[in-house]
Sequence to fold (190 residues):
Amino acid sequence: MPSAIAGDLNPFPLEAAAATLEQLGLRDRIELRRGSGLQVLQPGEVSTAVIAGIGAPLAERLLSEAQATGALAGVRRLIIQPNHGYPKLGSLRAHIDALGWGIIDECLAYDHGRMYAIIVAEPGPSTLQDEVDRELGPILRRGNDPLFGAWIEHERARLTQACQGMQRGRADPQQLASYQRMLAILAAAV
Fold:
């Protein structure tokens, strides 16, 4: 029978999860543990690990900690759903790659007015061939996801607004150039 382990650093989400699992009759199949990220796992305990609903920088930190402590031992697949777009999503992809994981699949999800990228990675060679792969994703950049066009337009609008704000204020020239480079990548994607 399939089972899962869910963890959170804070007790309140775990209490809410316990109540929901009880209502659904799943409490005996999902173990709840209090702890930081993948540190709730013992090496070899799971084959698939999911990191979802957090920022990309925190996901990077949790992956590094899990790699360093051996919590990723035995994990054959990562599913990561960060709450960020450019530039943090590209940084996360580069970090996954640097840890020795190749991105094997990606998709987009729309929920409550927000767009989210979901990244699936497995141990293996790099799948990031260039800056476009890092920023748009080696799978997503193919444009096969039905939400890809809407995601590109959303990111373009967000970055255009940010660049306009930077140009009016005293922006860091390197950050402005980075955002403008990403706008060029987005323009070429559609």
